[in-house]
Amino acid sequence: MNINKIAIIGGGTAGWLAANHLGKVLCKQAGVSITLIESPDIPPIGVGEGTVPDIKKTLASFGISETDFIRQCDVTFKQSIKFVNWMDKETHGKGNFYHHLFDVPSREDSEVLTAHWLAENSDAPFAQQVSAQHQVCEQGKAPKGITTPEYQGELAYAYHLNAAKFAHLLADNAQTKYGVKHHLTHVSRVNLADDGSIRSLVTSEDDDLEFDFYIDCSGFESLLISKAMNVPFIDLSDKLLVNRALVVQVPTYEGADIPPYTLATAHKAGWIWDIALPTRRGVGFVYSSNHMTDEEAETKLDYYLGGKDPKLVYKKLPMKIGYREKFWHKNCVALGLAQGFLEPLEATSILLTDFSASFLANRFPVKKSELAVLEKRFNYAMGYAWERVIDFVKLHYCLSDRHDSHFWNENRDLSTIPNSLQEKLKLWESSVPITDDFFSQFEVFYLENFLFVLYGMKFKTKPLALLPEVRESALVGLRKREEVNNYLQSKLPKHRELLDKINRYGLQSV
């Protein structure tokens, strides 16, 4: 029996990303239809404003113009995450920081420059040693020029964006290009078949809607995979300790400088994201309610923003940290927040949603007889990906030498650190990480991502004595990097200058 009728439950970024991925693959198959069902009275959370570089490939594959995307979604460029005060202020100074950059050297250059940095016990920031993007970020420069074609750049980049506007752009693209149907209604009941699969959805208008396959993008509510199908939730609050966020939108004045990175500033019980769009900043105070009261969190956020402003409205978001025991069950797949949530650090929510939706679309079941084998494949791959993301997020916390609160001390307790991460850190005490330490195509973060965090946070790896040829190769690499620094500083415009030109003239189409 063929799978022809597909329903996506929930809109927002997750639902419309799924609609585009599936639509692109399935729209030309005879008899196949995709319907996105979205409640008209449930607003999206709309705080997922950071992305990673893979999103460029996704948007280009959907045929979305980068110029249109930038203009319609209040986009700014993101070249890094700048981590401030994640290390002890007494030891490393108040305002200590490091960059997790997006532009990396070749694997060969990376290994040589890392070995040289460790051997020299250099005081220079690790990111500055290996990439010209460090200086570009610190100078507030853009990653490309106005004549650079769409989705290309002098340096690697991702985006900051208005999440609500992004969902609208994706919705329009899915409907106009791929024929995805949009149905505004509330799902009031889910009917299951005798075998536990989903038979139909009952709406608030008492319509009984039957489909062959269902995709749960209903957010934290997890209407299908959790409430109807009772797939258990794996709680990770003993590993990742933050569980709440206060979010606010702060207006900025016209012409203000726009940092080309996400700012992530640590505090005594968590951290603060600060994302600059053209006319506002999206700020989120992430914290552990087990280590800080809600009242103290509000006071701390007031202080960060320069004092209490009665015009600003804080929105409190509880964060249920963990993921589903299964992401695919019977004829239902969960994506986005219905699949799980770790925390906003490193923009993992949109990253995992995009990754999962693409993986699903590229091997979507044609017949119901394929469901069992594809379910097993999907759950294995996504489970591995989630576990590796947990390792990477936890890395930021357990490497910190802050000791000003129980929160940071507890994050270094071995009971809160996954065994898989403990094993890696033990290995990397005596040897520099190499590509072979990341052996699966389902790694979401790779060697260079780990290097930026490990050595940005002063992780101690026993340096090896450098062979003369390795030292010479490193010195050649450093000279080349300095040449690239000078070239980029002379060529690249300031961030806001480029955005203003894009909005006025547009980028060159590919």
TrEMBL record:
Is Flavoprotein among this UniProt entry's keywords?
A: yes
The alphabetical list of record keywords is: FAD, Flavoprotein, Nucleotide-binding
- Which catalytic residues are annotated? 78
Q: Where does FAD bind?
A: 11-14, 187, 337, 350
Asked whether the UniProt record includes Flavoprotein among its keywords, one would answer yes
Which positions bind L-tryptophan? 346
Instruction: Please tell me where 7-chloro-L-tryptophan binds in this chain.
Output: 78
Q: Mind telling me what this protein is named?
A: Tryptophan halogenase, putative
